[in-house]
Specification:
Elements: H1 3-29, H2 39-67, H3 72-94, H4 100-125
InterPro entries: MAPEG-like_dom_sf, Membr-assoc_MAPEG
Subcellular location: Membrane
Protein name: MAPEG family protein
Length: about 130
């Protein structure tokens, strides 16, 4: 099974979980649009949005790495780090009494995956790696 497809499947299911969580909180606080002044709903919306902002680009970079025949272990490590980063970030931001270390780890790790993937792709594209 291709590496990117494996991790994209887990991330897609997590995306659905985040979506369903918003729906449940919307019902709970009776807010069909916006956050209705609910900190819990606002945080849930931001977790979902942040996931939507970062994961597609990162998966695309990982897919490019895989199709360029990058080292499979490196692709697995980067994809696993992305999955862990998004889980940790979602947990951290979802907490109303937020411990910033979860958010920082999640964002830092996600950005590292993007940067490392981008640089690796540049080397592969130039025929250096």
């Amino acid at each position: 099974m291709p590496i990117t497809i494996f991790y994209a499947s887990f991330l897609a299911l997590f995306y659905i979980y985040l979506s369903l969580r918003i729906i449940g909180i919307r019902k709970e606080v009776r807010a069909s649009i916006g956050d209705g002044g609910s900190n819990k709903l606002n945080r849930s919306i931001r977790v979902h949005a942040n996931f939507s902002e970062y994961v597609p680009l990162t998966l695309l970079l990982l897919y490019f790495l895989e199709t360029y025949n990058a080292n499979a272990i490196v692709v697995h490590v980067l994809a696993a780090l992305l999955l862990i980063a998004r889980l940790v970030h979602a947990y951290g931001v979802s907490q109303t009494e937020e411990n910033l270390k979860f958010r920082v780890f999640g964002m830092f790790s996600t950005i590292c995956v993007i940067v490392v993937s981008s640089i690796y792709l540049m080397f592969l594209g130039a025929g250096i790696a």
